[in-house]
Amino acid sequence: MALLGWLLGGPVGIGTIAVALLTGRIVQVSLPQFERLLVTLIGEKENLPPVLKV
Predict the structure, then answer these.
(1) Kind and range of the H or E run holding 18
(2) Which of the residues in the chain have pLDDT under 50?
C-alpha cells in the first residue's frame, strides 16, 4: 500500500512505513483481548451475535 501511495504521488515517510508494517501485528495482538472484553461485557460466548463469534 505504501508503494501504491508513493506511485500516486503521495508522501512516504517513516510514519507511512510504520503503519504499513505494524497495523496487522497490532490487530493480531488486540483482537483476542477485545474478544475477552466482549465476552465479559455481554456474557457467555454462546450469547454473542453471530457476527462477533470468532
Answers:
(1) helix 14-42
(2) none
